[in-house]
Design goal:
Blueprint lengths: L2 H13 L7 E4 L3 H15 L5 E4 L2 H9 L3 E2 L8 E6 L3 E2 L5 E2 L6 H10 E9 L12 E5 L4 H10 L3 E4 L1 E2 L2 E2 L7 E6 L6 H10 L3 E4 L1 E2 L5 E6 L2 E6 L1
The chain binds D-4-phosphoerythronic acid (DER).
D-4-phosphoerythronic acid binds next to helix 2 and helix 4.
Pathway: Carbohydrate degradation; pentose phosphate pathway; D-ribose 5-phosphate from D-ribulose 5-phosphate (non-oxidative stage): step 1/1
Function: Catalyzes the reversible conversion of ribose-5-phosphate to ribulose 5-phosphate.
Family: Belongs to the ribose 5-phosphate isomerase family.
Length: about 220
């Protein structure tokens, strides 16, 4: 299977939902980058789009394509966001954060009227959890959070870059937490929300309306 082709197909399908004058959320990760490139083509063809980026990397790619990137605090809602995921189920439960942008991705998703997730077919799972759950933590609290994750049977590892802790665009750390297969993602999300110091966790629940999955040389659209 050609997962890069599947990512491209999903991105091209998702961008069809974008209309001129929309405020568009730009996701982060290799799949979302295909969508940003497609949005760049719309702009080149005269579409008027204002974009909110979920990472500095997405913002830089968008700017290089002459997409007008604006401050998220200048808008009170976003029409369409196109973002990727690390795992998703047919019940629209998903794990995000592999790309390290989960805090901004979650705020953007919360502000978005139509959140479209695009993914290659390797991301679809029956049960979440093969992929560790990224947890974005304020550095002041990271050892405390590690201990609290252990209390709820999560084995946390601080994400490293070279030989120091990876820093998100927010200046936070990421702990990748292994809970094994997650039988009740909603219950786990509630527990993670209770831990002081957690800025965001990668269980995205109730934030997505449409998933477009590339499958060989076509796409499959899941609608809530
Ligand atoms: O960080 C994220 O949630 C991204 O969407 C990401 O994990 C998906 O990355 P990929 O499109 O490169 O697989």
């Amino acid at each position: 299977k050609d997962f890069e082709k599947e990512k491209m197909l999903a991105a091209q399908e998702a961008v069809k939902f974008i209309e001129s004058d929309m405020i568009v959320g730009l996701g982060t990760g290799s799949t979302a980058f295909y969508a940003i490139n497609e949005i760049g083509k719309l702009v080149k063809n005269g579409f008027k789009i204002k974009a909110v980026a979920t990472s500095n990397e997405s913002a830089a790619l968008a700017a290089s394509l002459n997409i007008d990137v604006i401050d998220i605090n200048a808008v009170d809602s976003i029409d369409i966001t196109i973002d990727g995921a690390d795992e998703f189920t047919s019940e629209f439960l998903m794990i995000k954060g592999g790309g390290g942008a989960l805090f901004r991705e979650k705020v953007v998703a919360a502000m978005t009227k139509k959140e479209i997730i695009i993914a290659d077919s390797s991301k679809k799972v029956a049960v979440l959890g093969k992929f560790k759950v990224p947890v974005e933590v304020v550095p002041f609290a990271y050892q405390y959070v590690l201990r609290q994750l252990a209390v709820i049977n999560g084995k946390g590892t601080v994400r490293m870059k070279n030989d120091t802790q990876y820093l998100t665009d927010q200046g936070n750390f990421i702990i990748d937490a292994d809970f094994g297969l997650i039988s009740d993602p909603k219950a786990l999300a509630a527990k993670l929300n209770e831990i002081e110091g957690v800025a965001a966790h990668g269980l995205f629940i109730g934030l997505t309306h449409t998933i477009i999955m590339g499958e060989r040389d076509t796409t499959i659209i899941f609608k809530k």
